[in-house]
Predict the structure.
Amino acid sequence: MIEKGICTKMEEDIVKSSQQISAKKQDVKYDTRDYVIGYLKQMFEHGDLYVPLDYQRNFIWNEKDKCFFIESVLMGLPIPFMFFSDTKDGRIEIVDGAQRTQTLVEFVQGDLTLNGLEILTESNGFCFNDFDPAVQRKFENTTIRVVFLEEGTTEKVRQEIFKRINTGGRHAKPSETRRGSIDGKFMAFLSKCSKNEKFNMLAPRSEETEKRYEGIELVSRFFAYSDKYDENFPDYTGNVAQYIDKYIENMNGLWEVSSQEDAYENRFQSMLDFAESYLGNRGFRKKEKSKSTPRARFEALSVGITLALQQNPNLEISDNAWIDEDEFSMITKSDAANNKSKLKRRIEFVKNKLLSE
């Protein structure tokens, strides 16, 4: 076995590698420049900025994406670097940042009305000209930082940069962004629950998904859905990430005033204890030897068990053959079916099965 850190390459191979790295570095020459939004708008309107649609046409923002971006700019949040490039005809190609540039121009031109803003809620329904003139000036004078590729950068290199920026990494999952942006007592409690030994035994996750906080995602869904079931999941529109975020933010605020950790922990533990007795070592797995836990199946079973226990605390263990029948498999087939009626159906299916037995 070769020890880590020990070089096993021939000198000739090392030289070839170094030469190739040096050559490829010379293909990409750049500097950084700052542009204010007002100037970017002028350049775009005059045709001095253009989008090479041959390799960017598939990256299209919807209205929600645009409004979210404008809200970030209005709040003064830092905007990721955009990539521009000089071209032979004197125009500037937008290598990466087309959607951002077009959204900025659309907004300043008055063609975008802001809706669905979650932080600047008082600005919902506003277009650019509705804002106070001071806000308009500050917006147009906001600086956007650009990596500017020098003339001579080949189209192949520009396409490669675009591909690597947009597809080279993994997008953060909601559970990851939530953990990094929503701090508080309830969030800490969810993290604690995700480390529960019985939970980890009954709801296994792969090492890869757990690195991305899948356990916290499952626990968050359990509490959000079991808490709001009687209220018919208010404000739930099918966007699970948004719904869970709002739930946790609200709970963080409530727990600052009055923590209910004991009651919530008892609910979670009671559900796990019953699940262990009823489902055995299989737990929330689809099959006994599965190494992962489907979200829709976990939601249905965990929340259904809790609702049944709330209605009948002395619920007895009965036959569980129905968990392998076609009907249950169909309603928990995919996490993609997240509209309210389907969410309620799979939860109520489990609750009613347990109570009827």
Notes: The two ends are 59 Å apart (CA to CA). The chain has a mean pLDDT of 85. The beta strands are 30-36, 49-50, 82-86, 92-96, 143-149.
